[in-house]
């Protein structure tokens, strides 16, 4: 008895999903835009604005897009950009050493950045050990597939590395909306991390073009990884950030091996560095090489390593509001007693072991 009603509901839903109701707002004008399910009549003047929607169940031959193409000046439409969009956003680097640099960075400048290359967060709890072993297992198929194709490996690495920040930011954004409270200052940092990893990918794409099999692998891995990490973050944000931290540790190992191959002459240290890398990391256009790009990206990965381990630690301590400690650091800096309380150090694992016993 419910079949006719269900069938009718499905048809209505299908019709509504396939229809397209679009609007264009222009001052002092009357614009009619048709769609398969409704007609929007918008009238605007200096004194009032009225909108009338006339429901129409009859199908029309032209979609909204077709109506716009045939009835509006396309060039005028594309040039009529809303004022908030009248800027070209320029991604910012992740490290303060690069942001604060007054002159373009040379090889010596990049080598002087202290990234604590051998820093490793020793897993001391069961969740941390699970996270560490998961990352180690994920490295095995990557090594088998790419072997010494380091640039192609980097493309795959960055498509994976760009996921955690975006997922974490999305989940925390939605949680902030649900609870109607501030997120503690995480979202901006997480989005910045995702953007930074995307810039890594765009840079490597200037150096090489992956073949069809590698592109197919990227599509499959990204589709699986995004959904798995999303589910994991809903279940345990602490473990998710720990996995991200260990992924960054593996990225540092991979880029260090990449640098060794360049230094040993197995990979040519080319000087044709793309503009996207020079502009983003403020590299010296006259001296920049592939090695400089690898060092800059490795330094970024070290920053993500520290950040994600720190995020996981904060979740354990239930001290997720970054703003409180940042204010305290600034206050201490004014009294010349500033100390680093938000970073990761070599004895962190021992401290956690004592704290959690």
UniProtKB/TrEMBL annotation:
Coiled coil: none
Molecular function, one GO term: metal ion binding
Cofactor: binding details: Binds 2 iron ions per subunit.
GO biological process terms, semicolon-separated: alternative respiration
Major subcellular site: membrane
Pfam family, any one: AOX
Compartments, record wording: Membrane
Signal peptide interval: none
Requisite cofactors: Fe cation
Any one Gene Ontology cellular component term annotated for this protein: respiratory chain complex
Keywords: Electron transport, Iron, Membrane, Metal-binding, Oxidoreductase, Respiratory chain, Transmembrane, Transmembrane helix, Transport
EC numbers, comma separated: 1.-.-.-
Record-linked PANTHER family: ALTERNATIVE OXIDASE (PTHR31803)
Protein family: Belongs to the alternative oxidase family.
Protein name: Alternative oxidase
Organism: Ambispora gerdemannii
Taxonomic lineage from the root: Eukaryota, Fungi, Fungi incertae sedis, Mucoromycota, Glomeromycotina
């Amino acid at each position: 008895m419910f079949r006719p009603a269900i069938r009718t509901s499905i048809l209505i839903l299908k019709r509504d999903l396939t229809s397209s109701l679009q609007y264009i707002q222009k001052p002092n004008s009357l614009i009619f835009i048709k769609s398969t399910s409704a007609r929007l009549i918008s009238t605007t003047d200096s004194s009032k604005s009225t909108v009338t929607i006339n429901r129409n169940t009859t199908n029309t031959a032209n979609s909204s897009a077709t109506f716009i193409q045939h009835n509006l000046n396309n060039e005028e439409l594309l040039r009529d950009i809303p004022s908030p969009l009248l800027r070209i956003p320029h991604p910012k680097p992740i490290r303060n050493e690069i942001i604060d640099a007054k002159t373009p960075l040379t090889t010596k400048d990049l080598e002087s950045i202290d990234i604590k290359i051998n820093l490793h967060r020793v897993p001391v709890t069961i969740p941390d050990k699970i996270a560490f072993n998961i990352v180690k297992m994920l490295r095995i198929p990557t090594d088998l597939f790419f072997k010494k194709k380091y640039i192609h490996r980097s493309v795959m690495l960055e498509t994976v590395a760009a996921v955690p920040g975006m997922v974490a930011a999305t989940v925390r954004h939605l949680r902030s909306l649900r609870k109607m409270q501030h997120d503690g200052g995480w979202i901006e940092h997480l989005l910045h991390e995702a953007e930074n990893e995307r810039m890594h990918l765009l840079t490597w794409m200037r150096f090489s073009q992956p073949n069809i099999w590698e592109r197919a692998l990227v599509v499959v891995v990204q589709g699986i990884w995004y959904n798995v990490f999303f589910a994991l973050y809903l279940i345990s944000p602490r473990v998710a950030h720990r996995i991200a931290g260990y992924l960054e540790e593996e990225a540092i190992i991979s880029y260090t091996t990449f640098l060794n191959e360049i230094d040993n002459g197995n990979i040519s240290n080319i000087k044709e560095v793309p503009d996207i890398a020079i502009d983003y990391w403020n590299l010296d256009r006259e001296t920049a090489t592939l090695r400089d790009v690898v060092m800059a990206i490795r330094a970024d990965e070290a920053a993500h390593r520290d950040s994600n381990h720190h995020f996981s630690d904060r979740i354990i301590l239930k001290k997720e509001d970054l703003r409180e400690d940042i204010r305290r650091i600034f206050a201490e800096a004014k009294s010349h007693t500033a100390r680093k309380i938000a970073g990761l150090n070599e004895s962190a694992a021992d401290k956690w072991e004592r704290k959690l016993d």
